[in-house]
Amino acid sequence: MGAKARRTPTSSRQIAFLRAINVGGHVVKMDRLREVFGELGLANVQTFIASGNVMFDTDERDMAALEQRIATHLERRLGYPVATFIRSPAELAAIAAHTAFPSPVDGTGGLYIGFLGARPAAEAEAALMAFRSEADDFHVHGREVYWLCRTRFGDSRFSGGRLEKCLGLPATMRNITSVQRLLAQHGG
Q1: Closest among 53, 37, 49, 40 to 2, alpha carbons compared
Q2: Cβ contacts of residue 23 below 8 Å, gap of 6+?
Q3: Domain 12-89 falls in which CATH fold?
Q4: So what's the architecture of 97-186 in CATH?
Q5: What is the pTM of this model?
Q6: Residues spanned by CATH 3.30.70.1280 within the chain?
Q7: Which terminus of the chain is more solvent-facing, meaning fewer CB atoms within 10 Å of its CB: N or C?
Q8: What is the pLDDT of residues 152-185, one digit of tens each?
Q9: If we measure between CA atoms, which residue out of 107, 87, 108, 109 comes closest to residue 98?
């Protein structure tokens, strides 16, 4: 489960959501990913499923600077860009609890959350809303985009890549089930 170290009175638990881990021909073993995070001086590093979810303790207070430092280090060590999005357990709990759509997900579809580095500009948000259809709906809340896919994910005409292009921002997607499981196991 990674290197163990005590939390200092000023350390806090954080969760990094990484883009491009174990997709698109990039394969990273979770023990290697924990090692790379440990090289940055991050403590109690753990991973959750093999899709780029990393929990760690840090004394760092500037999360935007830490996101950049992690992304730079990952690119140097893995050989390709890895966009990084950090959320605290409290932020993740609020994200999971947010009611983005009035009715629950049913059928073969699902609810996906796109993690962003910043709230999209109003023009980008409007461009995203132009993709609403019977199959796909979107809701922007802070630095997250909620995507309600009412069909099978693979049958949707929308994708994470299209989300990034539309918003002009890097993003990484997780389904709500993974977010809830991550929060239940590592949320505090």
Answers
A1: 37
A2: 51
A3: Alpha-Beta Plaits (3.30.70)
A4: 2-Layer Sandwich (3.30)
A5: 0.89
A6: 12-89
A7: C
A8: 877 888 888 889 999 999 999 999 999 999 999 8
A9: 87
